[in-house]
Amino acid sequence: MKHIHIHGLKLEYRDFPATADGRPTLLLLHEGLGCVGMWRHFPEKLAAATGCRLIVWSRAGYGGSQAYPEPRTPRYMHREGEEMLPALVAALGIERPLLIGHSDGGSIALIFAGAFPEVPLGVAVMAPHEFVEEVTLAGIGEARTAWQTTDMPKKLARYHHEQTERVFFDWNDTWLAPAFRDWNIEACLPQIRCPVLAIQGADDEYATMRQIDVIAERVPGTQLLKLANCGHSPHRDQEDAVLAALAAFVGRF
Hints:
- The structure is a single chain.
- The protein has helices spanning about 40-50, 75-90, 105-115, 135-150, 150-160, 165-175, 210-220, 235, 240-250; strands spanning about 1-5, 10-15, 25-30, 55, 100, 120-125, 195-200, 225.
- By secondary structure, the chain is α/β, with parallel strands linked by helices.
- The chain has a single domain (about 1-250), classed as 3-Layer(aba) Sandwich (Rossmann fold), CATH 3.40.50.
- The chain has an eight-stranded mixed β-sheet with strand order 1-2-4-3-5-6-7-8, with helices on both faces.
- Helix 2 crosses helix 3 (about 105-115).
């Protein structure tokens, strides 16, 4: 594992080298409870399928990355997309990254692409959120019950260690807070100028298909992939289909 300092915080990351010439650099953005380790073998499989250099990191407070000293706010994804991600891209010396984000990571990728439309080469999102739905809140409420009644804390602790409780409640409390009900990033979508691939599972426990349909309505040329027998983690539930779709999307550049 490598480390890099961004805005005074030490973040962990892995860097898979390119195996083919002239390929773009892929940046993989994790979900709201994720980190480098929770992607498991997906990053190396994606790097192999595309031939691209691929970088995956744990955001501040996740995995082995240093946490922010202050509490989370409802604009935590804007902070990542407008401040931390551009600083990371600059520190790594990447001019035109191709962003691939899952869940919160997908939302952060869209925020970044809207704020800096000249930077990303392309954006692929899996189960992103652009607004809050009732099904999302219900799913997050069920996750809170799972935290209290199952071995979920123990499983998450394998990846987040002493930060596990903060990781969970930063995510869970923020999404269930009344102040977060009006969170919405649809306004950033028309600013996106790069090609977009949006992937959603038909059985997503945290969202409906409306989440990716709205991207297609606001970003001309968006490619949609709607997967049957697939929940909130398409890269795990339908790994082969997702790897094929991402490889084809990346192959356009």
